[in-house]
Amino acid sequence: MPPKTRRRRLNEYIPLTGPVRHAIDTTMIIVGSLITALAFNLFLVPNHIASGGVSGLSVIAQSLFGIEPAYTQWALNIPLFVAGFWMLGRDYAIRSLLGTVVLPLFVFITRTLPVPTTDPLLASLYGGIGVGLGLGIVFRGRGSTGGLSTLAQIIQKYSGLSLSVCVVMMDGTVIALAGFVLSPEKALYALIGLYITGKIIDSIELGFNYTKVAYIIAEQTEAISEAVLNQLDRGLTKLSARGGYTGDDRTVLMVVVGQSEVTRLKTLVQTLEPSAFVIITNAHEVLGEGFKRVQEE
């Protein structure tokens, strides 16, 4: 098989569509909702930490009126679900409906589980991790758990802000309310959980396995290009640039590689031109044909 044909086949990928994509999304929404409910009942509720959103409001309602959190969540989710239906579309509403129903259901089912810690700091840390992990999985499944996360996704759609920023905005309002109703100390613990939740959501949405982008400034650009194409079996892009000091025109090579290929790339460049200038940065996600690989048949 010719090298170019082999490289093209290696770089082909098959997108998930239709029933398979729907089944994966549904599973992710259910699993993410369960993880969120477990974190809520194991860490946040018993320590009276209002983590934000409708869940945080349900903690406040329980503290003030003794109302079961699951009931408060169901009640508040209804008007927000209607808003999501009109502003985010029918398909989104269907996926949101699943999360809106199953999250309070899981909260209700797991409400009697034994509490692993009564330390509010540990509760805010692990509660934030659990909620962020659960919500991140739900969002990766193109769904929502309803409540203020629906409002956050509406704001994201029309403002261009990242989803984590929108979630933090909604949750921050609830935490401020909790500071008045519960105690300032509980609100401070909730802020810790909120910060961790935002970071975990970003990590889940963007991926933990960072891809690397390398920018190579060298004299032997043709030799390095051939080595990357034939030895590393990666594509590259040649960028036109001009030296800031000399004003000379030059070519910058941009190469996207997996994390396991970084050492090979650096060794390859250093072997061909030890004085080459190489910049390597993280890329959370790479989209488009030509990067993800599948095995040959």
Secondary structure blueprint with pairings:
Layout: H1 3-10, H2 18-44, H3 53-65, H4 69-88, H5 90-109, H6 120-140, H7 148-159, H8 163-181, H9 184-206, E1 211-217, H10 221-230, E2 237-242, E3 249-257, H11 262-272, E4 277-283
Helix pairs in contact: 2-5, 2-6, 3-4, 3-8, 4-5, 4-7, 6-9, 7-8, 8-9, 10-11
Q: Could you please describe the fold and organization of this structure?
A:
- This protein has 297 residues and is α+β, with helices and mostly antiparallel strands.
- Helix content is 62%, strand content 10%.
- It is built from 11 helices and 4 strands; from the N terminus they run αααααααααβαββαβ.
- A 4-stranded antiparallel β-sheet has the order 2-3-1-4, covered by helices on one side.
- Helix 2 (18-44) packs parallel to helix 5 (90-109).
- It starts with a helix and ends in a 14-residue tail after the last strand.
- Mean pLDDT is 83; it is low at 1-14 and 293-297.
- Residues 234-288 form the DUF2179 domain.
- Its main location: membrane.
- This is YitT family protein.
- It comes from Paenibacillus puldeungensis.
Question: Which descriptors apply to this entry?
Answer:
4 strands, N-reg_PII/ATP_PRibTrfase_C, membrane, alpha+beta, DUF2179, 297 residues, 11 helices, cell membrane, four-stranded antiparallel sheet
Radius of gyration: 24 Å
Number of DSSP helical runs: 11
Which band does the percent of strand residues land in? 5-15%
- Give a short account of the largest sheet: 4 strands, antiparallel
Number of strands: 4
Q: How far is the N terminus from the C terminus?
A: 13 Å
Low-confidence stretches: 1-14, 293-297
Order of helices and strands: HHHHHHHHHEHEEHE
Mean of all residue-level pLDDT scores: 83
* Fraction of helical residues: 55-70%
Largest beta sheet: strand ordering: 2-3-1-4
What's the shape?
elongated
Secondary structure class reads: alpha+beta
